[in-house]
Amino acid sequence: MPSMTRQTANLILYRQRAGLEVFLVTRSIELNFLGGYLAFAGGKVEPGDESIPLADGLDTETPELLGCAVRELFEETGILALRGTTAAGDELKKLRLELLGDGGAGRFFSVMREIDARLEPGTFVEAIRLVTPRFSKRRYTSTFFLLETDDEPEILPGELAAGGWWEPAAAIERWQRGKLLLAPPVIVILRQLESGIGPGTLESLRSSPETFEGSGLAIPWGPGIELLPFHCPPLPVTLPSSTFLAGTRRFVIIDPAPTGKKEQEHLLAAIENRIAGGDRPEAIVLSHHHIDHVGALDAVQERWSLPCWGHRRTAELLERSFDRELDEGDLIDLGDSPAGAAGWKLRCLFTPGHAEGHLAFFDERHRALLAGDLISTLVSMYVGTPGGHLETYFRSLEKIRSLDIRLLYPSHGMPTLDARGLIDRTIKHRKKRIGQVLRKLEKGFHSVEEIAGEVYRDKADSRLRPLYERTTRAALEYLVEHEQAGKVAEDLYETG
Q1: Is there a contact between 144 and 187 (Cβ–Cβ < 8 Å)?
Q2: Sheet of strand 280-285: strand arrangement
Q3: Nearest to 248 by CA among 215, 281, 287, 273
Q4: Which is it for strands 41-44 and 6-16: parallel, antiparallel or unpaired?
Q5: Any long-range contacts for 438-442 (C-beta under 8 Å, 24+ apart)?
Q6: pLDDT digits (tens, 9 = 90+) for 12-43
Q7: Among residues 184, 195, 317, 390, which one has the fewest Cβ atoms lying within 10 Å of its Cβ?
Q8: Considering the entire predicted model, what is its pTM?
């Protein structure tokens, strides 16, 4: 397990009625990680979870995971998976409220011992383990347990907004129509459970890769959109950069990102997997020309002789011709939507500022924006000279801010439901940096290098100094254009 991840335990709570049903909870929209998504009950392992009381003869190498599973299940649904206690009904409800108000796993299991509750063998069956991809600021190694129950969960308002029983196929169908937000691990698991739980189900779940990275598989996220995060070195430090596969039976490859041979092979394998399943790649589509978006362009073209589409200025900067030049308002036909509706398209948006030929792509049917490098949930997006232009960048941000975006996919970082909030925070941060540059000018600093050193004093990585200087030049350019810096700034910009 990656050392940088935190462990979680999650419950695939299920029952057999007319068919298989699983219990999904709706995470509160205010949560920082996957807020607003449907997920399985569960949460982070806490100190004290390892003190779970075990029945005589039961031994386990992961008491902390089992303890977390028991505690989170009780806290989130009111279902107590421990046996032996006579406590039931209203007594358990009262106990649940008391323990929620007096948090801590140690306290929880101390009370469990007081009521003589123990974990019996075979209660939980470990089914699958999944690791959060590298593009997330918060990463978890999540262990999912199967648990059959006849009890009815009760959701208390707080971290969870609601909960309900779902047939796996019905949940997937609603997600494909854009009516549900399902966390990617839930999509993976529900697809495995669509035909019910049979003799091979557990083996199939356990054979799934812990992480999609390097597996040759793409991460399902929204309807018809899969992504593959790669580590690419556009800068002196590496940054996860995503390639997107958009479409179902026919699909386009947006930004073949990886520069390294090994990661290029992973991308080629993911495309091959789609082709093996009967899907057909139509074209390579580029948001812009930077190396962490075109690193595997030649490798993909050589394998399948696919046409390449992008903005005219991107073609010029790459010194190559495109099979189709894209611009504002152009449509990319994806055929039928995941739900089977005809006329599914991506609309091109010309969004320069980070790069001169930058495009974003809007899926109006599902209100999803593939934003490229216009904005990021992982870092502050680089806007520097040459090629970058802050006033143009702000106009592009305002353009996408006017859209009715439900889900925004950045090339760097996790998709987000909070597109407008992210845009507002990005503009605020960028203008704060511009203000810092102006104040350094007013204090008499007389070189780009000096100003950048002061403004980015909080950034310790010296390898990024050239980038800080280029962003400082872009800020000086902005100040000159807005007549906020006077002749001093103009001289700095022209001679720096």
Answers
A1: no
A2: 219-222, 225-232, 239-247, 250-254, 280-285, 308-310, 324-325
A3: 281
A4: antiparallel
A5: 438/479, 438/484, 438/485, 438/489, 441/479, 441/485, 441/488, 441/489, 441/492
A6: 999 998 899 999 999 999 888 899 999 999 99
A7: 195
A8: 0.91
